[in-house]
């Protein structure tokens, strides 16, 4: 299995243990890592049977002003921004320990401005890859309802009742 972590995170795979398909032919990613997993599966010359997207970074319905404000807050105080971001990922539940990596403004820009492309999704589905999308109904980071509607024609889509961005319900 190939797995891609979320923005500013490392070793976050354990949060998704109960959903992960631990197959050599599975590609998975969380949030920003879902973008990376998607692009990897799209361009991979190796066999891929399934693609699991956990709370994929889905900001294409957000206004440009929101995206600019996120980048400005990051530039102003990266440490505070990341602290608030991780806290928001766990809301409305208790904050859990996460491991972090250094981040770049360009990564935040990429995740905020990434456009999920219908033609690319169709290409992956037509190649025989089964896509699964997991979303939390209480996600404070992305618009889970809009993401569900967008991915539904291409993927088996799960909206987990009471779950946050990390798909935690407790």
Cα radius of gyration in angstroms: 15 Å
Fraction of residues in helices?
Answer: 25-40%
Order of helices and strands: EEEHEHHEHHEHE
Overall, the morphology is globular
Could you name the CATH class? Alpha Beta
CATH topology: Rossmann fold
Strand content: 15-25%
Q: What is the number of E strands?
A: 7
Strand order of the largest sheet: 1-3-4-6-7
Unreliable stretches (pLDDT < 50, length at least 5) are none
Superfamily (CATH H level) name? Alpha/Beta hydrolase fold, catalytic domain
Task: Let me know the average pLDDT.
Answer: 96
- The total tally of domains equals 1
**Distance from first to last alpha carbon:** 27 Å
Structural class: alpha/beta
CATH architectural designation: 3-Layer(aba) Sandwich
Reported for the largest beta sheet, the result is:
5 strands, parallel
**Number of separate helices:** 6
């Amino acid at each position: 299995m190939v797995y891609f972590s979320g923005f500013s995170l490392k070793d976050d795979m354990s949060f998704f243990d109960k959903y992960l398909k631990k197959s050599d032919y599975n590609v998975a990613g969380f949030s920003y890592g879902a973008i990376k997993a998607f692009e990897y599966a799209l361009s991979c010359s190796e066999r891929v049977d399934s693609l699991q997207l956990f709370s994929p970074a889905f900001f294409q319905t957000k206004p440009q002003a929101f995206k600019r404000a996120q980048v400005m807050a990051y530039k102003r105080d990266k440490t505070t921004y990341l602290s608030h971001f991780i806290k928001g990922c766990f809301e409305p539940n208790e904050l859990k320990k996460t491991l972090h990596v250094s981040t770049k403004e360009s990564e935040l820009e990429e995740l905020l401005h990434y456009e999920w492309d219908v033609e690319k999704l169709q290409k992956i589905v037509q190649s025989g890859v089964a896509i699964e999308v997991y979303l939390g109904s209480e996600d404070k980071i992305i618009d889970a309802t809009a993401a569900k509607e967008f991915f539904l024609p291409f993927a088996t889509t799960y909206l987990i009742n009471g779950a946050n961005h990390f798909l935690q319900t407790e």
